[in-house]
Design a protein that fits this description.
- By secondary structure, the protein is mainly α.
- The chain has 24 helices and seven strands.
- The protein has three domains: 158 residues, Butyryl-CoA Dehydrogenase, subunit A, domain 3 (Up-down Bundle); 196 residues, Neurolysin, domain 3 (Orthogonal Bundle); 209 residues, Neurolysin, domain 3 (Orthogonal Bundle), CATH 1.10.1370.
- Helices cover 64% and strands 4% of the residues.
- A three-stranded mixed β-sheet has the order 4-6-5, sandwiched between helices.
- A hairpin with a 2-residue loop joins strand 1 and strand 2.
- Helix 13 runs parallel beside helix 24, helix 14 packs across helix 16 and helix 17 crosses helix 21.
- The structure holds zinc ion.
- The site of zinc ion has 4 residues, from helix 16.
- Zinc ion (ZN) binds next to helix 16.
Length: 594
């Protein structure tokens, strides 16, 4: 298939023909009507239902959830590619308000599941007819000690729209609206933030430093708004902790993730104990670049021939081939994204930065957003997002309540897919310079998804703990950021002064509290899974597919158990870093051989 301009834009008309379509209005009206019916039928009765009655209620609830979420997913896609369009803005706001309202109407269902007596719940949870919903029911019950009365929960949700939800929106709109002016190749012009971050991979050190400085300085200009947003998000969370009787800022995330606190602490401690590995690599990279010492703008500098750029069609084929070699149906699932135009490829003003894959529902296929600029890293991003895509497609075997993989496993298929791509490229190329470049890219990637995410998590933890005590000035936020990054970089990397503002553009802090440790978790988990694949060959594949197909039907620990992995094992996390150490040794041998 040829890739003309149209094929680089995603097609959302399979969801609704247009934002003004009557189908969308009908869905909103039906959603509201069915929510009312559901409430009338079940409110005040859930705790009394027998097995058959509860099963029927759960099925109706799932159907209703699918109906309600579709307009929101659609408007989210429109908003992501053009947040400056007024039609998109108002539809996005309208569906968010609609979702919020319906969510409040349906709150009673979870709350009444929590009200079922312990004896009765024990019998329900072990009844074979409810086996498909056991994990969901138990997850709801776990929140019982932290849940308020229905009216209180409703009010909190209502005020979220003008409270923390409004600040999240402000962050998104502000970030997408920022324009940057910079000189490149003798010409001064406008850049998007994504383009500037992409220039961290530029071969010229001065360009890398200038683009990151321009990017960060623009954020510093917005310091009033950005530090207010961060403070509000943190204060909101600390109020929530108090209202819901949590002891630590990470506790709600850990509970939601079904990862015991000890496991998270172990993961973070082991990561910090291995920071030396990153510094070892940074010293080596400085030698490769012929620099006395790296600046943090040199960390992603291309080594050898990675200034090679790839057309989108080339990149797409490489990724499809890498998946196809693993398993033909993985290639087919990945290819369908392009054939069905479910990928939006190019950066443009008003479009959301970065990349994501949006899982929809068991009935609706997922979508991928990219900001493709043509470097090797962008090729890896396609493999990453399509990994998510394949995961979402395989999980469509599950019903709505079991569809989304638990957060700590959400990055499994994406990181695994990147590994497949690296291995494919390493085997395909004979040029030692390019092999060095590929190995560097993989090592940097692992550093970014483990150590850097650990730094981010530590910063976020301190931000929340300190905000409990007092207002955080922007200079305090800068200090916290600087200190935590300093622990990783040590004497191996010099941080440029504007990097003090590095915290201010990280969307995860605003959108998904403590999401970042999921990357560390996933990367180390995947390194183990990948090692198993190397050892066991094709025999491993069905186990892996089974993990992806189980979606959110089991806890993380139960999901990975078939692969022989015990998350509570003390040495499990260190093994991932041992694999990284081996990669660094492999790189050293290659460098010496050149
Ligand atoms: Zn991802």
């Amino acid at each position: 298939m040829d890739y003309d301009a149209t094929h680089l834009l995603w097609d959302t008309t399979t969801l609704y023909p247009a934002p003004s379509s009557s189908q969308l209005e009908t869905d909103l009206a039906n959603g509201a009507a069915q929510t009312k019916t559901f409430r009338e039928r079940y409110q005040g009765r859930v705790a009394e239902l027998d097995v058959a009655g509860l099963l029927e209620a759960l099925r109706r609830y799932e159907e209703l959830s699918e109906l309600l979420v579709k307009p929101q997913l659609y408007s989210h896609l429109l908003f992501a590619v053009d947040s400056e369009d007024d039609v998109h803005k108002s539809l996005s706001q309208r569906t968010a308000e609609f979702g919020n309202l319906m969510g409040r109407e349906l709150l009673f269902f979870d709350l009444e599941i929590m009200d079922i007596s312990d004896d009765k719940f024990a019998a329900l949870a072990t009844d074979v007819r409810l086996a498909g919903y056991r994990h969901f029911l138990e997850s709801v019950r776990k929140l019982r000690p932290h849940t308020l009365k229905e009216r209180e929960e409703q009010l909190l949700r209502l005020k979220e729209l003008t409270g923390v939800g409004a600040f999240t929106r402000l962050f998104d709109e502000l970030s997408a609206s920022l324009r940057y002016r910079m000189e490149l190749d003798g010409e001064e012009r406008d850049f998007t933030g994504e383009e500037l971050l992409g220039l961290l991979h530029h071969p010229d050190a001065a360009v890398r430093e200038r683009s990151f400085t321009t990017f960060l300085a623009r954020h510093e200009e917005e310091s009033v708004v950005l530090s207010t947003i961060f403070n509000t998000v943190a204060l909101d969370h600390s109020q929530e902790l108090e209202l819901r009787d949590y002891r630590h800022p990470m506790e709600p995330t850990n509970l939601g993730n079904e990862i015991p606190e000890e496991v998270v602490n172990r993961l973070m401690d082991v990561s910090e104990a291995n920071y030396g590995l990153a510094r070892d690599y940074f010293h080596l990279k400085a030698r490769l670049l012929g620099l006395p010492k790296l600046k943090n703008t040199d960390v992603y500098a291309p080594v050898g021939e990675t200034d090679r750029s790839f057309t989108f069609a080339e990149a797409k084929d490489l990724v499809l081939d890498a998946y196809g070699r693993f398993r033909p149906d993985f290639r087919e699932m990945a290819e369908a994204f392009f054939d069905e135009r479910r990928v939006d490829v190019m950066p443009r003003p008003g479009k959301s930065g970065g990349a994501f894959c949006m899982g929809m529902t068991p009935q609706l296929p997922p979508y991928v957003l990219l900001n493709y600029t043509g470097n090797l890293r962008d090729v890896a991003t396609i493999a990453h997002e399509l990994g998510h895509g394949i995961h979402f497609v395989l999980a469509q075997k599950q019903t709505m309540l079991n569809y989304h993989a638990p957060l700590p496993l959400a990055e499994t298929a994406s990181v695994f897919g990147e590994m497949l791509l690296t291995r494919y490229l390493l085997e395909r190329e004979d040029d030692p310079q390019l092999k060095i470049a590929l190995l560097c890219a993989k090592i940097e990637d692992i550093i970014a998804t483990t150590f850097r995410q650990n730094v981010l998590t530590r910063f976020e933890e301190r931000m929340h703990l300190e905000r409990k005590q007092e207002l955080l000035t922007s200079s305090r936020l800068c200090d916290l950021w600087w200190e935590e990054n300093g622990k990783l970089y040590g004497d191996a990397v010099e941080m440029i002064p504007p990097y003090r503002w590095g915290w201010s553009y990280i969307g995860h802090f605003i959108h998904a509290r403590f999401y970042c440790y999921s990357y560390t978790f996933a990367e180390l988990l995947v390194l183990s899974l990948y090692r198993k694949y190397l050892e066991e060959g094709d025999a491993f594949i069905p186990t892996y597919v089974g993990i992806l197909e189980s979606g959110g039907s089991l806890s993380p620990a139960d999901t990975v158990k078939p692969a022989g992995i015990d998350l509570a094992d003390l040495h499990f996390w260190q093994k991932g870093y041992d694999f990284l150490a081996e990669l660094i040794e492999e790189l050293k041998r290659l460098v010496q051989g050149v």
